[in-house]
Write the structure tokens for this entry.
Amino acid sequence: MNLEELQRRRQELQREEEEVQKRQNRLYDDAESILANMEMIGNESARVADVAHNAKEILDDLDREFELQTGLKGVDIAFLFVATALQCGRIFIMNHLTKVEKAGQGNSKEEFLHDIQDKVLQKFDNGVSATSTKYYAPLDQIISGRGVPYDATGYVDVSLKLFKGANHRFSTLGHDPILGLIFGTANILTNTITCVRTPIITTNHVIYDFNYKNPKIGMGASTSTTLKKSLERVNEDAGAVVAAVMKQVIHIGTDMYTPCGIQLPGANLLLSNTNAEKITRYISTGDLIKAGASAGLAVFINTIISTLHMLMYDENNYSSRDVYSVKTRKIILYSNLIASTSNVIWVGANMAMGREKAIKDLDIGGLMITIQRLMTDRKFIHKVKEEFVFGQFHKMIQGDELKLKEIQW
């Protein structure tokens, strides 16, 4: 073997030795990485075991944290007071506006509506005076006459008697809150009165004196002709039709909260006049309108308070918008509960003292909204609480991502 071959062989051995050394170094580094990784995994396993072992205490702490974040304090209390005051004010105003008053002089709502009627109908006045004829009430009569023909209770001839006294509200279709828009308006346009004698519908002429006063029920008329003549005026005298419709609506409004009230739509078509009157004592169209208006106003107040409170959300102080909205829901729910409970207690106390009519002051619409809030808000709060508590617990178990060292072999 010559010198050149020896040198080449020496170089090969030297490279093999360096490669072996590198492998030894890598094995050493990998061993250290494995030990470090095992230590990290062991520590993580111990941490998870500790979390699992103390799960009850941790969940209790998270529950307290949720209550702390969603508890009402400071400005939240101010919102609660304002919301409660608005809801209580709503109940008081609605009861005041719908207070039952005797018809006629001294009825503030009736006087107010009549003043509106006079101001509005005067705008239709064309300055033309006409004579009332068969199936025709002139525009100036519709505008200047305070009453409506289907309110007539006197008779040209006693033998024509259709009903007695205030029972005319439950006998005439003009006093139906829905059908009255058709028949009541037609009666105003034609100086007639349409009555129901289940299951027959009859119409009679109404006779006025020269000042359009002292209406008296006269001879029979045709219901179909009454409607036909009214329809003809839609094209011939639209102003009179509009004025008649407005007068019809206002008249129903003046009768709505009087002792007799206004029957439910279609009641006298399905029941006798006497039974329709009895049912109206317990539930009337006015009660339905009051409940609907009260519920709508309660929802409006809730929406305003909710919107304003949500505008104060600060993401730096709360884990999520949903968690903050729990506070908002609590404000709305508590204010509705306080207002409704106060109303129920007040009505109950008055009824216990013998004031049975106090039942009419029960805030049915508000109670419906409160019950609806109880169902939806409690469900929402429970859902958010579950997500908060178990979500945070899951994150604690999951922990941070392990940064294990890379193994080369």
